[in-house]
Amino acid sequence: MNRPRKVTTLGQFIIERQRDFPFAKGELSRLLRDIGIAAKIVNREVNKAGLVDILGSTGRENIQGEDVKKLDIFANEQFIAALTSGGECCVIASEENEEIIPIETEISKNAKYVVMIDPLDGSSNIDVNVSIGTIFSIYRRKSLGGPGTLEDCLQAGTEQVAAGYVVYGSSTMLVYTTGRGVNGFTLDPSIGEFCLSHPEMRVPETGVIYSINEGNYIKFPEGIKKYIKYCQEDDKATSRPYSSRYIGSMVADFHRNLIKGGVFIYPQTQKSPNGKLRLCYECNPLAFIVEQAGGKASHGTGRILEITPTDLHQRTPIIIGSVKMVEQVEDFLRQYPGN
Ligand code: AHM
Ligand code: MG
Question: The domain containing residue 166 runs over which residues?
């Protein structure tokens, strides 16, 4: 008789990993668990999104007489509620909120952690049933007690203690790191648990996928234009032409490239000299993950993780994925420096 395979849930895995840190008191574990629970609630709503047209669209009442919230607002509220009531987080910064959200509750006044989050990334895909994601980053606080401060949030990516993302795709996955490798969990809807499905994830050194919004081609820096042309050339030895794959949800594009190998690029353009994507809650968490998986994340001339943020919502150009491909893009930028 075949023995049933042992399933490791996210909750079990977090507790097992806590033993690697002998002085850990379990706060980070609880924080990660809270994020996992909020992600399941968001997943449930994302799965129902197509029904919104039947139940009543945003801004109107549904048949139960409740207001139907836009999914990104719903996700933001869920994560904020989970982090506020969990008691481990002293301040939250979210893409959806202009200012930081200091947590003023009694249970949080000695909380150690800071969470930066993009609750639902891929806004253009939310209403059209295409993969979207949540991205988060966790830091240790700098301030001493009480609600957290802006300074707690403006730390370089190298200071992250954990980071992760959830991709709401053909199945839902949560991938995270605490600086000791990267592990991926797939949500099994029949038991309502994230189960370890991708242990010790490693990004291939190189790949044959490039992901960039080529519609912006004429506005790209010279080095990026030249790199795109390089990707399209015919060359058997390097398996070119490469495949172009661009979903328009960074998490989904990143996740595919993490598994298959590839490079994702969102460069500066003439219109957006700092690129589009946000450093603190989009680029830094994915940069931490990719490095932990053996890949690389660059802003063109240096490491994403070494940028010191001065603004909560600041943007950065990003080149992220397989180490050899990222380095090659950097070479092109050096070789063709024009804007
Ligand atoms: P958002 O935070 O409004 O969702 O924007 C971020 C998204 C990323 O997920 C994606 O990579 C990028 O914007 C796509 O932008 P574009 O449509 O300019 O290619
Ligand atoms: Mg976003």
Answer: 10-198
